[in-house]
Every structure is written in structure tokens, then in C-alpha cells.
Fold this protein.
Amino acid sequence: MLLMYKHLTVEQRYQIEALRKQSISLTAIAATIGVHKSTISRELKRNSLQKLHPPDCYRALSAQKFSQKRAYKPLSYKTSNPSIQRRICWLLKQGWSPEQIAHTCRHRAIPMISTEAIYLWIYHNRYLHKELDLTLLLRRRHRKRRKRALQKQPRVVIKNKTSIHQRPNENNTQIGHYEIDTAKCQNGYLLVLTERQSLFNIIIKMPNKSATSVANALMNIKEQYAFLSLTSDNGTEFAQHQSIAQQLKTQWFFADANRPDQRGKNENQIGLIRQYLNRKTDLNNICQKHIDNLQQKLNHRPRKKHNFISPIKFLLVNSVALVC
């Protein structure tokens, strides 16, 4: 039988205290009160006085006080500050996350509440500004589950691949090593390249996911950027990796199958792009100039990896130019 989780009441805690004095087992206590036995175990571990008065000394009144002290506190008085509220709303509209807002304001000595307080305030005031749901300005949204269709298509094997395990370790400290992948939209795809050290992004619009489209997109920017290496998954859109690597004068590495964590930086950046261009976005209505503006916006956004310094500023501080 599946029991729904509820907080223990004072009466239940007095029952636990009385049954414990009779040396009743945890399983029997749980059955008597009507909760799972692990609930009783956690209750004794969290709210017992055994550290102060051994052996196991459980008092219902003390346990209730301990539980109330751990309860959620009310929102900070700072959340009622109009200037802080306006600053949060404005930065959310600029695409910043609550964590970026809290840490950047702290570094600049600007009054601001904590990351968790910002989330609580957003969900507590979802329709504060003219029926605008502030949660829609948050970066991440849970994807709805969908049934995967069975596609009986012949498997295409990419030839002459170089494994990611052959990639030199010094790539982690050099500028110019990219992770690459595609992101699907309506009536087109996005080719996303992420520089591994600075998190600098390059976003290119493509009509489809073919290997030819990927090759043409990379050839169009080969004069603008210097690529020391490229790391991708095993998608068939990268089937022309040998000719591309030869023309770009670089190395191409392939991650292991079903290991997106080996290209985690690129996967994370695609997640950031989805805040603006999701799967339902019609790329026929969006030009490359609009995508370039989005690319510029992401590259000027502060990142946690570098203590909330943007990729552009990181490159300037380290005096590195990605352009050839």
C-alpha cells in the first residue's frame, strides 16, 4: 500500500514517545501510527535528544520544536523592496538566471536577495506584473514525456572516427577547442559550437541536418575562427568529418555512444539557447542576423564557471582572440 507523505503531528509524536518507552519496534510503531517505518526512523534521528541525554531519549514536545525550527522561513523583508523587485524583473527579461542575478549583484555590492529567495519570490508572485507569469522567464522548463516512435532505418556507420579517448589532455587548458552539435527547430536546425575553456558560442542556422549542410556551415566561418579541435557525438550529420578537418586544418574527435556528459559544455549551452529558440520555433521567420544577436547576448552573459565573468570578458582578460 502506497502511503502519501505528510508531516507528523504533535499527537503522533506523543504516540511515538509512548511506544518507544515500551520498547516497541519501529515497524510496529509505523503500523500503529499509519506511516512508513522510514518516517519513524528519520523522526528519531532528526529530533531525538540522544546526543544530549543518552541513550535514545525522544521527547514529543522537543521534537515538535525542532521540527518547527527547520520549517520554511517567511520571505525576506528585502523582497518587498521595489528597487530589488524591478532589478530582478529587468535582469530576468535580459535572460539572466536567479543564480547569476544574486552572485553578480553581490560581487558589485548591489542590494539583492539570495538565489533561493529569488526563486521563492518568483513563484510566490507569478502574476505580479500585468498577468505576466515570471516563471516563463526562467531558463529551464521540464520537457513533456513523449512516446518514441520506432524507426526502421538502416544504421549508418561513420568511417575513420577518432575516439575522444585519443584527445590530448592539454586541450582542457588551451583556447580554441570546440564541442559541436545540432539543435532541432521547426523548418531547420541550429549548428552550435561551444569553446570548451571560455564557453564562447557560435550559432549557425541550417536548412536541414544533412552532412552537407554541416560542412557548408563550417566552411562559411573557417576564415573567422581558428579551430584547434572539434568534438561531436556520433550523429550522421558529421559523416564528412575527414574533409572538414582537412580544410579547417584541425582534429575531429567523437564521443562515446550515449555519453552526452563527454560534451557537457555544448549540451548545456544548447539548453541556454532553448530559452529563446525551442523546438517549435519556425526558423523560416528568423534570419541569421537575429541568431547573431542571440549569440552576442549569450557570449556577454556572466557564467558561474569563471566566477560570473562572461565568455567575452574571459577572453579579454586572458588576452585571447578566437578570430583568425
Observations:
- Residues 10-69 form one domain.
- The CA atoms of residues 13 and 60 lie 5 Å apart.
